[in-house]
Amino acid sequence: MGVAAAALLIGLGLGYAVSSQKGGRESTEIAQLRGEVNGMRELVALSLLRQQSASERLRGVSWANQVESSDGQVLAALLDSVNHDPNVNVRLAAADALRTFAMTSAARTEIAKAITPQSAPLVQIALIDLVVDLKDSAAVTELKQVTADGSLNPSVRERAAWRSRGCNEFHFSQIYGLLCGSGDAYSAGARASATTDHSAIQ
User: Which residues contact 16 (CB under 8 A, 6 or more apart)?
Assistant: First the structure.
């Protein structure tokens, strides 16, 4: 099916769904139609991401943003674009789109691993900001490796060092919150010890 035809069908399907909702006929058929619409969006996105033209691949990223966040095929395609697309603008757009699909720890780990191999500092910085914004504690290790990698752009290393400090602070606040909210006695001495450990990490 051509991309234009699929887009037309998606538009018709959405129109039908909206009109049915207005008539109060929300049903299993509508849920099924929504699934089909999402499937067509996925097909359009994946097709466009494989095109030779960078502008078409950018359209593919835009279509990917309309797919349900649990879609594993689109996640894999976006990761592939981030890692291998020859166009920096496409890689940047794909990195931004990944924010929606980073639902699992495995996905967030793959995003973090994509930082070092990148050839464009702008993409590396975008990925650094993304993994920190996702608040995955496992990102701290990856960011420390980026900071210590002398082969990387100095601005990238500085960004990783700066953002990793914020990531450490978030991780510490999570642990502190769990301890304080557990209902157990949490002495001033324990708090001081935890604070000392946190300072040592940084």
Answer: 33
DSSP string computed for 40-56: HHHHHHHHHHT-SSHHH
Return the amino acid letter for 52: Q
Give the residue from 166, 157, 169, 164 showing the smallest Cα distance to 139.
Answer: 164
User: How many other CB atoms are found less than 10 A from the CB of residue 128?
Assistant: 26
Place of tokens 């450990």: 197
Contact 133, 162 (CB under 8 A): no
- Helix 88-101 vs helix 54-64: angle between axes, to the nearest 10 degrees? 10
C-alpha distances in Å from residue 177, one per residue of 141, 145, 174: 22, 28, 5
Q: Which amino acid is at 46?
A: L
Is 157 within 8 Å of 149 (Cβ atoms)? Answer: yes
Task: Report pTM.
Answer: 0.69
- In whole angstroms, give the CA distance from residue 86 to residue 53: 11
Q: What is the pLDDT of residues 6-55, one digit of tens each?
A: 555 455 555 555 554 545 555 787 878 888 888 899 999 999 999 999 99
Collapsing DSSP states into helix, strand and coil, what is residue 177?
helix
The angle, 0 to 180 degrees and rounded to 10, between the axes of the packed helices 28-49 and 72-84 is 20
Region for residue 149 given its phi and psi (left: phi exceeds 0; alpha: psi -120 to 50; beta: otherwise): beta
Q: Which amino acid is at 69?
A: S
